[in-house]
Task: inverse folding
């Protein structure tokens, strides 16, 4: 069999206007995908392409597929859904892209279309709806879930489950997750007053976005963040009406709920009217900063979203830009730093957290090779795509230098994932948030020891 | 069972389920490489992980007379990895291991899917690097570099890929595995030279031994701005005439500068600059200062507006990132671009650039110029919008005309991007029909049934008078007339 090639037949005559097979609101934006010239510089930045080597599992390939649907060449089917959802939404491609193509936003828009065309069915749909619609949008229910977890841990039930091997009925990756679940404390949104004054001379005032996972699973990180901010002369306000940021919803293609949460948060924080909204969870911070993108077709909220997004800063960048004092006590630790994707690639924050850590006397920073490659957490990716998430986690942990004592980062999803990685590999590095290290260093100034 | 189904079943049997793509949706992303104006659908894409697997696949395809295309990262700019329709693509991206590094003999052995820049990154701690540095080096494969005989900014001093390849393992058209080269100046014909740059038409390279170089003791980089492309061109000629051998001299013109400044890696080129030169000298530390000073004074003689020397490696890195991402940066100012790859004698730079500017004005398409000025390798970037009826054809035509402008002054149609699909017909600008036929005869020795990268690189020899108008090659006219 040989083909009879004809050059003229291969020339792309005209790309049809992108109406194609996107039938719902918010289709992938033509202005965004037409900026991609197919150069391929994103390829080696993409963790899924590095693992699989498949073009359709690369940023440029995914955009190619998105355009193909827009042009009506392919349908929204399983074959389209797979690469859209195998993407980690880690944004490493956006750092690599010479033309500034917003790959993440395109993928999220495409996922919105996929979920409209192909709603999740069966138990997947049930679980997804339960969490995305039933729990996360309702702070009280989320806190109740946290409390139940706490009861599970404190009542001895966890010990019973772990010893009895009952968790063996869970799929492997969920069992591993159960094993690394941190001791759940009480959310700061419940325990702290609405306004916490600065210590000493007031240098600034901020509103704090507490996050869902962060506040339920890592309330100690939130407590540390409040202490570090107030210690540095910044008063902290915690608007009690704040909601989940909606990142998980947008990632999962539930744009409607994502937008609803966005509008509520915008109203809440604009009313509080602080100069800055600080966040210590990279995933949330990135989502909040992208509200204008999410609400681009909302005439009522577009401008408000822009005003709000301009205020949002990761806490490490806020401290770095608006004043902090290096701790005086020594914290003798060898530390490496892992870039959360949504901090480095999503918000362009690379050096600030590293500088904060380096400023702690006694801390020795050890570089982590490929520090900005995704650990596989990616929101709930490690639950939906355990195989790929596990491969990326293994690579990540294998590159952690042998002699570090702590791995610092700025995102709760990464913290859970890395804790699981350290456990699976039989290692004992402590997983910490950058704010926790700073907090400990300040506490040591009171004369405590660094054990 | 259909022919395709049988083939897919066999490939899965040989390579495994996850190493074969055959659904339309997945194949669609393989319809083109870095050149997007030509697209064709492959029959399947397969991902062998070893030389033996490549051999097995090739043997079967050969027996069943199914044409096949080796593919690296798919960053090529001439459509070398683009199917006409119905070929099987053999992707080599899963063969991406560094097999050996021999620092004493300054050699490294890599698999074809190994990334160009990764080699340098893997040996830099020992003070070594791999010299050929195409702008896509962060993502292109060394196998692809061999196929295209890739160049790069620093090829002015260090030569192109063929000057750095020492040995190859090749799977021939029937699946047979052979090794060529391996020792310097091997007796017999220079098969390495023949295979390097053969664009996948002579065999599939499955292992490559390359030369690695010791990092230069010192390097200095300067950036110079000019009020006209002419002044910058004369400065380039002046520097070479002064006897300096720069590691690189790169030029970007006004539109290119606008593009890179609006993209991801801006460096603050002054607005309104008509041309910028990035010049680098490297080598032993002694004399580097003098060379940079001499380059500065040559630029001054040619009305340089501003010139600065990189303060440190970080600044040098930023300048190179700005230059090396220039093609992709066109996305910031145009929905599509077509890049050409003409070569001209350095002394004719300003003349040819003026000619290209005329072509741009006549066609109404903007042309940005980003190129290796030091070795006269032009890269006119023709900016167009495929959504406008007929504009793709116009861009292709403009591309061919820029090549004619190059061959008219004794130049050539490709410096480093290869011929592929894109410049097949333009081969007639530099070769007569008879010369093309002779080369196809050589190809037939390795690729007798034209299954390996079917019909790439050479046009069908013109018979019955169907000769494309050939400019700058009187001979082609004569041959055509004789027929």
Result:
């Amino acid at each position: 069999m040989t083909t009879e090639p004809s050059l003229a037949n291969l020339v792309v005559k005209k790309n049809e206007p992108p109406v194609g097979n996107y039938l719902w609101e918010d289709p992938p934006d033509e202005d965004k995908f037409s900026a991609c010239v197919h150069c391929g510089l994103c390829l080696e930045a993409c963790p899924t392409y590095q693992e699989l080597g498949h073009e359709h599992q690369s940023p440029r390939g995914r955009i190619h597929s998105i355009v193909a649907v827009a042009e009506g060449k392919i349908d929204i089917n399983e074959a389209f859904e797979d690469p859209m959802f195998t993407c980690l939404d880690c944004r490493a491609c956006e750092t690599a892209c010479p033309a500034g193509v917003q790959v993440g936003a395109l993928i999220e828009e495409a996922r919105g279309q996929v979920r409209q065309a192909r709603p999740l069915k069966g138990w997947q749909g049930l679980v997804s709806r339960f969490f995305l619609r039933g729990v996360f949008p309702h702070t009280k229910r989320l806190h109740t879930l946290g409390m139940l977890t706490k009861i599970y841990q404190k009542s001895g039930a966890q010990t019973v489950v772990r010893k009895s091997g009952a968790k063996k009925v869970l799929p492997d990756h969920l069992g591993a997750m159960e094993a690394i679940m941190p001791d759940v404390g009480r959310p700061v949104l419940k325990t702290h007053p609405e306004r916490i004054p600065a210590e000493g001379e007031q240098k600034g005032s901020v509103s704090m976005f507490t996050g869902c996972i962060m506040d339920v699973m890592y309330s100690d990180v939130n407590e540390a963040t409040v202490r570090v901010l107030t210690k540095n002369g910044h008063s902290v306000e915690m608007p009690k009406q704040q909601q989940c940021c909606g990142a998980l919803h947008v990632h999962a293609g539930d744009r409607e709920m994502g937008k609803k949460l966005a509008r509520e948060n915008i109203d809440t924080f604009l009313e509080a009217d602080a100069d800055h909204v600080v966040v210590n969870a990279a995933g949330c911070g990135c989502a909040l900063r992208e509200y204008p993108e999410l609400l681009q077709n909302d005439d009522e909220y577009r401008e408000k979203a822009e005003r709000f997004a301009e205020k949002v800063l990761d806490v490490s960048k806020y401290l770095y830009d608006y004043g902090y004092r290096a701790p005086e006590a020594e914290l003798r630790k060898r530390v490496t730093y892992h870039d959360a994707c949504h901090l480095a690639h999503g918000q362009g924050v690379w050096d600030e957290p590293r500088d904060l850590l380096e400023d702690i006397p006694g801390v020795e920073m050890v570089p982590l090779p490929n520090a900005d490659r995704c650990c596989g957490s990616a929101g709930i990716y490690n639950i939906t795509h355990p195989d790929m998430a596990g491969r990326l986690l293994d690579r990540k942990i294998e590159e952690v230098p042998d002699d570090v004592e702590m791995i610092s980062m700025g995102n709760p999803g990464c913290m859970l994932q890395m804790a699981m990685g350290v456990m699976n590999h039989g290692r004992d590095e402590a997983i910490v948030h950058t704010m926790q290290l700073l907090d400990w260093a300040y506490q040591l100034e009171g004369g405590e020891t660094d054990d | 069972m259909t022919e395709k189904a049988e083939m897919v079943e066999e490939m899965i049997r040989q390579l495994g389920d996850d190493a074969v793509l055959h659904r339309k949706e997945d194949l669609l992303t393989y319809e083109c490489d870095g050149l997007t104006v030509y697209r064709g659908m492959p029959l399947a894409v397969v991902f062998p992980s070893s030389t033996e697997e490549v051999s097995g696949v090739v043997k079967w395809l050969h027996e069943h007379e199914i044409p096949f295309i080796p593919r690296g990262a798919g960053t090529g700019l001439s459509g070398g990895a683009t199917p006409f329709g119905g070929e099987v693509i053999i992707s080599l991206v899963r063969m991406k291991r560094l097999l050996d590094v021999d620092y004493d003999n300054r050699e490294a052995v890599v698999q074809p899917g190994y990334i160009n820049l990764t080699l340098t990154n893997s040996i830099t701690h020992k003070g070594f690097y791999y010299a050929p540095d195409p702008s896509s080096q962060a993502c292109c494969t060394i196998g692809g570099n061999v196929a295209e005989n890739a160049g790069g900014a620093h090829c002015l001093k260090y030569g192109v890929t063929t000057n750095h390849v020492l040995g190859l393992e090749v799977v021939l058209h029937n699946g047979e595995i052979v090794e060529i080269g391996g020792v310097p100046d091997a007796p017999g014909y220079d098969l390495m030279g023949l295979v390097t740059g053969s664009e996948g038409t002579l065999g599939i390279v499955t292992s490559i031994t390359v030369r690695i170089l010791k990092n230069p003791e010192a390097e200095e980089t300067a950036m110079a701005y000019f009020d006209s492309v002419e002044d910058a061109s004369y400065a380039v000629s002046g520097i070479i005439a002064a006897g300096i051998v720069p590691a690189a001299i790169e030029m970007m013109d006004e539109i290119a500068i606008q593009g890179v400044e609006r993209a991801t890696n801006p460096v603050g080129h002054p607005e309104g600059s008509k041309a910028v030169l990035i010049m680098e000298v490297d080598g032993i530390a002694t004399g580097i200062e003098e060379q940079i000073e001499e380059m500065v004074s040559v630029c001054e003689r040619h009305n340089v507006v501003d010139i600065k020397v990189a303060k440190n490696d970080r600044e040098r890195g930023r300048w190179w990132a700005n230059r090396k991402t220039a093609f992709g940066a066109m996305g910031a100012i145009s929905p599509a671009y077509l890049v050409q790859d003409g070569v001209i004698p350095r002394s004719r730079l300003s003349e040819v650039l003026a000619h290209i500017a005329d072509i741009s004005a006549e066609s109404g398409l903007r042309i940005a110029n980003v190129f290796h000025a030091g070795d006269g390798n032009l890269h006119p970037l023709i900016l167009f919008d495929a959504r406008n009826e007929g504009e793709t054809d116009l861009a292709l035509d403009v591309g061919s005309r820029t090549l004619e402008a190059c061959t008219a002054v004794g130049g050539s149609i490709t410096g480093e991007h290869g011929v592929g699909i894109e410049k097949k017909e333009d081969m007639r600008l530099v070769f007569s029909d008879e010369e093309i036929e002779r080369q196809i005869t050589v190809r037939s020795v390795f690729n007798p049934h034209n299954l390996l990268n079917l019909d790439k690189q050479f046009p069908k020899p013109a018979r019955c008078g169907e000769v494309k108008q050939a400019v700058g090659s009187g001979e082609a006219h004569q041959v055509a007339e004789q027929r």
